[in-house]
Amino acid sequence: MHIENNNSSSVQISNNGTSKTQSLVCTDSTAMTVPQILLATAKVKISTPSGDHFLRALVDQGSQSSFITERCVQRLKLKKYPFNCVVSGIGSSISNVCKSFVEFLLKSCTNSSFETLVKALVMSSISDYLQRYPVSSTLPKEFDNITLADPSFSEPGNIDILIGADIFHEIILDGVIRPQNGPLAQHTELGWILSGPINSKNSLSIENTSSFHTQVNAIDNSLRKFWELEEVSTSKISTPEETACDNYFQNTFSRSANGRYIVKLPFKSKVLNEDYPIFKNSLLNAQKRFTHLEQRVFPKNQTLKEEYSKFINEYISLSHMKFKCNLQDLPPTENGFILPHHGIWKESSSTTKLRVVFDGSSKPVNSTSLNEELLPGPSLQNDLSSVILKWRKFLFVFTSDIEKMFRQIIVHPEETKFQRILWRPDTFSSLQLYELQTVTYGTTCAPYLSIKVLQQLANDEADNFPKGAEVLKNDIYVDDIISGADDISSAKTIQKQLKELLSSGGFNLRKWTSNCPELLSDLQPEDCEFSFNLDDSNSSVKALGLFWNPKYDYFFFKISLPMCNIFTKRTLLSDASKLFDPLGLLAPTTILAKIYFQQLWLEGIGWDDPLPHKLSSEWKQYRNNLSFLQAIKIPRWLGTISSSSIEIHGFSDASNNAYSAVLYCRTHRPNGQIFVNIITAKTKVAPIKQISLPRL
Question: Which pTM does this prediction carry?
Answer without folding.
Answer: 0.69
